[in-house]
Amino acid sequence: MAAQGATLNHVSRESSDINRLAQFYQEILGFEKMETPDFGFGVIWLKLSSSFALHLIERDPATKLPEGPWSAVSAVKEPSDLPRGHHIAFSVANFESFVDTLKEKGIQTHERTQPNGKTKQVFFFDPDGNGLEVTSQ
């Protein structure tokens, strides 16, 4: 039997600079720091609401996986590749001013409107190259 009452608890991102990544998510998307247990390596837990958390984990220098965005076949390099690439999506009420803020900060974006003509989307990368989407709905 499938799990009952399952909800998304958190997403984790590994980084060689968790402080830089935490600052980005706090400034751009309004995340707040949470109390974080001591795991014996660097971890920062952030929350966006009472039901969603982002766990930033210090990259293990012994890992053999590449940093930045990747998929099974190739790396995603441009925000325009993200609609069909790996990304996390958020919704905001102030979409137009949010996009203006990204541009003011020099963040490269790709914007599009869904076929329904109502929902606007902007795609971009965090400082470690993880794909992000923000939508108007």
From TrEMBL:
It comes from the Eukaryota. It holds the Pfam family Glyoxalase. It comes from Daucus carota subsp. sativus (Carrot). CDD domains: VOC_like (cd07245). Residues 7-137 form the VOC domain. Signal peptide: none annotated. This is VOC domain-containing protein. InterPro entries: Glyas_Bleomycin-R_OHBP_Dase, Glyas_Fos-R_dOase_dom, VOC_core.
